[in-house]
Amino acid sequence: MCSFSEYRVYPGHGIRFVRRDSATLVFSTAKTKGLYNQRKKAARLVWTQGWRRLHKKIKVEEVQKRRSRRTTKFQRAIVGASLDEIKKKRAQKPAERSAQREAALKEVKERAKALKAKQAKNKSAGGAAGGSKQASKTKTAVKARGTQR
């Protein structure tokens, strides 16, 4: 295609011109090259395809813009919580949610307290029976591991 007149340029014909910005232009004739060099606008010359297109002498096929589908939000269940549970939590009022959180924290603290009491009970009962042997073994194992480094 001629870069000026937009006519077909057959193999072996035409003039190739490389601009400073390394854009390659192909001209069909010396006439089109001369008009390009004179900085003439192709749309103002009646015989060029640009003028014919501008003045609606040729049928131009307009490329219709493809309609993009609008993305839809889709709620999925998360591992460990079903979709119903998630919806219930979302519908809860902030006061209910904070009360639930406090109750859960209280339960965790109680569990930790019970575990600590159990460990203290085991320590006091096991300390007199012979837990010292086990403790001395672990101390020597730790010492040995420290010397290897």
Defining traits:
149 residues; 2 strands; elongated
Question: How are the elements arranged and paired?
Answer:
Elements: E1 15-18, E2 24-27, H1 30-37, H2 49-54, H3 83-91, H4 94-129, H5 131-148
Antiparallel strand pairs: 1-2
Description:
It is a single chain. By secondary structure, the chain is mostly helical. Strand 1 (15-18) and strand 2 form a beta hairpin. The chain has helices at 30-37, 49-54, 83-91, 94-129, 131-148; strands at residues 15-18, 24-27. A two-stranded antiparallel ribbon has the order 1-2. The protein contains five helices and two strands; from the N terminus they run ββααααα.
The amount of beta strand, in percent, is 5-15%
Strand order of the largest sheet: 1-2
Sequence stretches where pLDDT stays below 50 over 5 or more residues:
none
Largest sheet: 2 strands, antiparallel
Instruction: Tell me the helix content.
Output: 40-55%
CA-atom Rg in angstroms: 43 Å
Order of helices and strands: EEHHHHH
**pLDDT averaged over residues:** 82
Number of helices: 5
Total strands: 2
Q: State the end-to-end distance.
A: 77 Å
